[in-house]
Backbone:
């Protein structure tokens, strides 16, 4: 196979702009790509300049509005705090491992002396010492490093929670959407509930979820797999974010070509085979459109839920900074705002890439 043939064969699987660079005029494509990058970059630079100029004109009870440089400085401090905390954690566990090793060595020495003791009293004394050292070693193994969660820890907590809620929402909404699209009766039955519950704010759902979770989830905290705050936030995210996926899935199933449905009937395919072979592949673009909307809704809902319930995460960080009222309050809140926005953008890009990987239509767009 020649290089030209290989390039032509691989081009359809590439991103559109890469495909144009390979198969069309590369100079013209590079100019277009540079233009598409330069315009948003220039607009963002203008935004930063306007922000810098206006910052000193806005005076609040916490001082003047922070400049981009001040926000970047606070971000650097938050990263440094995270690194310092991780260093302390490593030092703590290193000292703990050393202490446990030393205690286990004492246990072995005491047991050896007890086995060679000439009198019963001495034997009992060293046996008691061995048991005491073993107990201290067990207690040392149970100790865990404790500190306030760093900013990056809170980011990971929010991401873990939103993905859990998004997974619950997806596993609920996609099957219900497929049933709604395939059954007119089921669609008529579920439609009123969708219209009633879809507009409900997370601020209304959260107290109900917290009360129900508190009543049903009574596991001992030391034995529980998940904290109550995590479950409450994840379920709230699921309740608020499942509707776009459910509706889009139903629309996608309804939009399936009737010829495909007729072929399934002629072949006498059973229900599960029809769903796997026809319904899911045909409605996949609609499902992913709903999933992208659901994920963005879930991310916004999570921040509000964390602020209201004081659950760990970015929402609680924003609320704590607001309550703190220090000179760095505004700058740190703006760090959180940019973090929330950038993560939301990246989550949407991840969903778009996933759609391109599994959907022919997504790959060709």
Residues:
């Amino acid at each position: 196979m020649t290089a030209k043939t290989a390039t032509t064969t691989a081009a359809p699987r590439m991103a559109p702009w890469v495909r144009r660079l390979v198969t069309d005029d590369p100079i013209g494509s590079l100019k277009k790509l540079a233009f598409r990058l330069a315009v948003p970059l220039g607009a963002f630079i203008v935004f930063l300049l306007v922000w810098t100029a206006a910052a000193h004109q806005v005076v609040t009870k916490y001082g003047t509005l922070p400049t981009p440089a001040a926000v970047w400085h606070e971000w650097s401090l938050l990263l440094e705090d995270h690194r310092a905390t991780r260093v302390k954690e490593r030092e703590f566990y290193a000292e703990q491992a050393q202490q446990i090793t030393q205690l286990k060595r004492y246990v072995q020495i005491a047991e050896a002396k007890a086995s060679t003791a000439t009198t019963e009293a001495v034997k009992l004394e060293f046996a008691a010492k061995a048991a005491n050292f073993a107990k201290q070693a067990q207690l040392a193994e149970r100790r865990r490093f404790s500190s306030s969660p760093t900013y990056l820890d809170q980011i990971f907590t929010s991401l873990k929670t939103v993905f859990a809620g998004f997974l619950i929402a997806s596993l609920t909404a996609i099957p219900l959407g497929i049933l709604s699209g395939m059954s007119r009766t089921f669609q008529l039955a579920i439609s009123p509930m969708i219209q009633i519950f879809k507009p409900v704010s997370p601020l209304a759902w959260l107290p109900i979820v917290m009360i129900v979770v508190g009543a049903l989830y009574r596991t001992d905290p030391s034995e529980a797999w998940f904290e109550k705050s995590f479950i409450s936030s994840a379920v709230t995210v699921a309740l608020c974010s499942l509707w776009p996926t459910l509706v889009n899935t139903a629309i996608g199933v309804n939009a399936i070509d009737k010829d495909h449905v007729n072929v399934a009937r002629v072949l006498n395919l059973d229900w599960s085979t029809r769903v796997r072979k026809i319904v899911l592949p045909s409605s996949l673009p609609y499902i992913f459109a709903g999933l992208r909307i659901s994920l963005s809704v879930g991310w916004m809902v999570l921040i509000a839920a964390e602020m209201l319930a004081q659950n760990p995460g970015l929402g609680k960080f924003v609320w704590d900074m607001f309550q703190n009222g220090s000179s760095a309050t505004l700058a740190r809140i703006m760090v959180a705002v940019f973090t929330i926005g950038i993560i939301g953008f990246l989550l949407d890009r991840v969903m778009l890439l996933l759609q391109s990987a599994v959907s022919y239509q997504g790959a060709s767009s």
Summary: The beta strands are 59-60, 63-64. The longest helix spans residues 68-115. Confidence is low (pLDDT under 50) at residues 1-14.
